[in-house]
Amino acid sequence: MKARAYFGVEGLDRIISQGVSYGSQIMVDGDTGVGKTVLAGEFIKEGLRCGDVCIYVACDEPPAVMRYHLGTFRVGTRAYEEAGRLIFVDAYEEEASVEKFHIADQHNLDKYFTLEKELLKRFAGQRIRLIVDSLSTLFTPFEPAEILEFHRSRLKYLRKNGILTLDIFVDGVLGDRVMMVASHFYNVILKMKFGSSATRPVRILQVGKVRSGKFSSTPYMFGISPTFGILVATELEV
Amino acid sequence: MDENVSVVHKILNYLYLTLSKTIPAIPFSGQYWLEEVTRGVGACVMDEYGKELELSSRRPADICRAYLDILDREGFLEASAYRLEEEGENVLVNLTRSRCIYLDFCRGAEKEELFFYCPRLGAFQACLQRVLGSEYSREVTINAEADMCRGRVSPTRRLKTEIVTREGDLLKIAGERAILLPKETYASIFVALKEYAPHIIKTILFDAGYLSALTVAAQAKTFYNTPLEALEALFEEVKNCGLARVELVSLEPGAGRAVIRCYNSFQVATVKKYGWFYRTPRVVCDLLRGMFSAYLTVLLERKILCEEMRCEALEGDYCEFHALPDESGAQAAGSEPLV
Questions:
Q1: Contact criterion met (CB < 8 Å) for B279 and A13
Q2: Contact B114/B24 with Cβ under 8 angstroms?
Q3: Is residue B37 within 8 angstroms of chain A, CB to CB?
Q4: How far away is chain A from the Cα of B204, in angstroms, using its nearest Cα?
Q5: Helix (H, G, I), strand (E, B) or coil at A150
Q6: Cα–Cα 20 to 30 A to B40, which of A227, B178, B198, B280?
Q7: Inter-chain contact A49–B333, Cβ cutoff 8 Å?
Q8: Can you give the residue ranges of every domain in chain B?
């Protein structure tokens, strides 16, 4: 049977009960501070335990932040890094980076794509999870047409090569039209939002796919536990 | 030596050899029980004949000599066969092997690769403890080619004991009450967790292994001089408890690194018998991972994290763990301070 992949988040994995195939692309679109990077951490943890190679491209913070985050969940990142199973790509510090893999110039999508492809080729034949956190940051300086052109060819390449991809987008960074068109290229879309509540903000998660130009899916409440990570209340539809 | 004494010697050797053969079949090791038996015999001799001990001084070597003299007078051995020397507070014991009354036991244990504990040195330990009031440990080196045996009896802070013990009705591990569970119980707990709180499974196994291993690791640290010795003793206990057979592939204490292999992990066996508890195949030995992380953290006195890089549940015939210092600076939520 062909391998299926999961997020490593119990409630979320129950929602996508069949999992996703390697070669799928997942878009995570969410508010600032809602827990997108936490979700990325869960996705990496799950991949490492399942024997995947995980490549994390850190655009919004240095890779040390994700190392620290994984450390709080007792993941010994060094062992995986030394074994070539966990790769951090620093797209944050640019020239100042001390990481083995870094992107010196964030303002060149072609260079980025070349590096991404080179890196992926090194692990050809293995199951790979690629996480870009956040892709919207990389896209910021570019025109919509450039973004969509790059995006289409990149995702086509990733799909063809069986790369399980998790692209993170910070809500509001890119225009609505770009987001709408870009979202069509993904197999699965996860929306993570803050919802309104009379007493305090609540986190809401929706999993689905854009169909007929519209995204509609059941919203679920979720929380973030410092011990257990993301907890999705599948019994509590909003 | 008269014929009756020879028979007594033979029977004694049979007795010790039988004990040695029995020990590997006893759950929870039992290797130190043999030490206690030999010391116990010495203590009984002291109870019976101690008043006849003619001490020329209270120096350890003289005390041991006086003990041998008692046995010589009783016709049990020839004290002149033993050459005792002083080395500081230690007593060095030299003996031509062919003159040792425990030769059959010694050779038999060597031939069958059984656990051996020299009854003579055990008796010296008991005698010194009785006269001086302090504990002694021993080590023995055999030079088969030269037909010589060389033992050393040295003062020790405390005697090594079994990590798993029984006290009255209670089974204890490192002094804490323990229970013996069949694999079925573990599996049923796991099934219940999966049903009622699936989100905690991945976290609690590591934590349970880690926290439960801290006490036993601390005890091993006090018993052994080096992290390597302590780690080997702890791995022996992991085997004795039926969790897995553990092999230390490499240890670099200074760098805080280790590679550990496990054969017959009970967690792998559980998955093989009851199926995957997870949605996808993965490494499953989180409890052992937590235990090894705790052992190394305590013994190397720095925060160490183990990762299972290969699991028998997925491929091959062993699991492999890589341990490295955790330099992320992260403190796991809800955990005890690690060092």
A1: yes
A2: yes
A3: no
A4: 9
A5: helix
A6: B178
A7: no
A8: 3-155, 178-325
- Across the A:B interface, residue pairs with CB atoms under 8 Å apart total 94
* Predicted confidence (pLDDT) per residue in A156-188, tens digit: 999 999 999 999 999 999 988 999 889 889 999
- Is the CB of residue B258 less than 8 Å away from at least one CB of chain A? no
Q: Does domain B178-325 have CATH number 3.30.70.590?
A: no
Give residues 62 to 101 of A whose Cβ lies within 8 Å of B: 64, 67-80, 82-83, 85
Q: Which residues from chain B sit within 8 angstroms of residue A82, using beta carbons?
A: 322, 324
pLDDT at B201: 84
Cross-chain Cβ contact B199/A231 below 8 Å: yes
Name the 3-class secondary structure at B110.
helix
- Residues A145 and A28: their CA atoms lie apart, in Å, by 21
Among the ranges given (A10-24, A204-218, B233-247), the one the predictor scored with the smallest mean pLDDT: A204-218
Domains B3-155 and B178-325 share a fold: yes
Closest approach of B179 to chain A, Cα-based (Å): 27
- Stretches in chain B below the pLDDT threshold 70: 1, 29, 158-159, 330-339
> Does B319 or A138 have the greater pLDDT score?
B319
In a domain, A17, yes or no: no
- Helical pair B103-111 and B3-22, crossing angle rounded to 10 deg: 30
* Burial grade of A161 (CB within 10 A; 0-12, 13-18, 19 or more): middle
Residue range(s) defining the domain that contains residue A102: 22-192
Tokens of B60: 């350890």
Please state the ipTM of this predicted complex: 0.90
User: Is-contact A136 A169, C-beta < 8 A?
Assistant: yes
B316 has a chain A CB within 8 A of its CB: no
Fold of domain B3-155 = Muramoyl-pentapeptide Carboxypeptidase; domain 2 (3.30.1380)
pLDDT at position A232 over 70: yes
Helices and strands, counts by H and E, chain A? 8, 14
The β-bridge relationship of strands B170-173 and B176-177 is: antiparallel
Smallest CA–CA distance, residue A79 to chain B, in Å, is: 6
Nearest CA in chain A to B328: A68
Q: Report the pLDDT value the prediction gives residue B336, as an integer from 0 to 100.
A: 46
Nearest CA in chain A to B332: A72
Query: What proportion of chain A, given as a percentage, has pLDDT over 90?
Result: 72
Q: Using a CB-CB distance cutoff of 8 angstroms, which residues of chain A are in contact with residue B203?
A: 73-74, 227-228
Choose the closest CB to A228 out of B203, B307, B324. B203
Q: Give pTM, 2 decimals.
A: 0.79
What integer is the mean pLDDT of A55-65? 95
In one letter, which amino acid is A62? P
